Amino acid sequence: MLKTMLKWMVAGLVSLTLLLGMALAAVPGAQAMAAGAKLKVRADRDNAAEAIFLAALADYFDIDTKVVLDLSKECDDEDLIHVFYRSGETGRPVRRIMREERRDHVRKRESFIRFVSDYYGVSKGKVRKWLNRGLTPKEIVVGLDIADEYDVDPDKVMEMRAKGQSWDKIRKHVDNRRRPPRPRGPKHRRGPRYGKKIIINF
Length: 202
Hints:
alpha+beta
């Protein structure tokens, strides 16, 4: 019930504006921008993390951000990743898979690991290590966003988060230690999009 209410709050607080050709660049609590979509977040840090997570899914699977947001009200966010992969691999509609298939914790976890590895260009072993440290999927996505934004080692960001530090404190810390600025250009998505067609309805 609480999760559903939070998701409705996100829907009310997130405004969607299409901006073609932009890569995901997220600032927790401020903005999350995805290729094909810009999300302005006027919410607390947890809701911002939700928006960043959904924006990454929309970008990688090349699905309209509003569609992803609507689907997130029907099942949990990690479940969506598995459903999108299944739709791409089988050609079956997302909503049919959501109704007919049982998705266990192991499959959802492996789908999340695959997504993060493909989208952010980190090894599956690292993602498993971060999950085993107790970090949630959303924490991992936000941590990778911060690591990419400030061009720092994601392991350092995850280590600080695992020790209980706030995102604000982590951002201030990495900002003081950032490497020389990189040339401007696409960020976050290091490889191609998923590339297979995702069917939403029948």
